[in-house]
Amino acid sequence: MSDKVVPGNDIALAAALRMIADVVVGAEWQGLAVSVAVVDRAGNVVASGRMPGAALGTMRFATDKAYTSAIWQYPSGAFRESSQPGGDDWGLTSTESGRIVVYDGGLPIHVAGEFVGAIGVSGGTGEQDAALAAAARGVEFGV
Question: Count of CB atoms within 10 A of residue 110's CB?
């Protein structure tokens, strides 16, 4: 067992906690207060945190952005256009008991080509959330 991936190819708690710490550092540097969640391949929370001052609803969004990225293995924002009325994925956000989020900030995590989980960030703009998630993923996994 490594400190990045556990047997069964799920992200390890130690790696998830480091990613959360990386997001917090980046958010503080930008003057943001965010929530972050790291989930396993099934979208179950491995670790999460809400910074002081982050809006209470950001934790739910962070968790659901990560969940969306985990079950589809795509960035959560990838469905924004296609899920609009008339789009190929219209109605997607009403599936999975309303947990599908089509805003930027959720990213899948791959290690050596294998899917291991996802990260979700909420509290900034979608662009800021996605950048924080990508930076943390890059620091921890080099992607």
Answer: 15
Total structural domains in the chain?
1
DSSP string of the chain? --SSEETTTEE-HHHHHHHHHHHHHHHHHHT---EEEEE-TTS-EEEEEE-TT--TTHHHHHHHHHHHHHHHSS-GGGGTTTTSTTSTTTTGGGSGGGT---SS-EEEEEETTEEEEEEEEESS-HHHHHHHHHHHHHHHH--
Pull the structure tokens for residue 1. Answer: 């067992």
pLDDT by residue (tens digit) across 69-112?
999 999 998 887 766 677 776 766 666 766 888 899 999 999 88
Query: What's the pTM value of the predicted model, to 2 decimals?
Result: 0.91
**CATH code (residue 44):** 3.30.450.150
